[in-house]
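Priority: medium. Attachment 1 of 2:
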C-alpha cells in the first residue's frame, strides 16, 4: 500500500466505503437533475457531495497541496446537460 493520509488498513477500508456511499449519493442527485425534479438546494447538495468526494479521494491518494485536497481527477459539472 502506498503512503496515504489513511494510516492503517481499517481506516483505508472505511474511507473506501465512505467514498462508495458518496458516489452513490452523487449518482442519485444527478438523476434528479436529469429528470427535472429538483430545486435550488439540489445544486448545493451536489457541490457539497462532490467536495466530500474530493476530500475522500485525496485521503486515499495522499494528495494534498498546501493543506487542501487535490486528487488526481477533478470532478466538474457540465451544467448544459441539465438545462434542456
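Attachment 2 of 2:
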Amino acid at each position: 500500500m502506498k503512503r496515504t493520509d489513511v494510516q492503517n488498513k481499517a481506516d483505508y477500508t472505511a474511507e473506501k466505503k465512505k467514498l462508495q456511499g458518496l458516489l452513490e449519493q452523487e449518482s442519485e442527485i444527478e438523476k434528479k437533475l436529469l429528470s427535472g425534479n429538483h430545486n435550488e438546494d439540489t445544486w448545493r447538495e451536489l457541490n457539497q457531495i462532490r467536495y466530500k468526494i474530493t476530500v475522500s479521494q485525496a485521503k486515499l491518494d495522499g494528495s494534498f497541496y498546501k493543506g487542501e485536497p487535490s486528487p488526481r481527477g477533478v470532478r466538474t459539472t457540465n451544467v448544459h446537460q441539465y438545462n434542456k
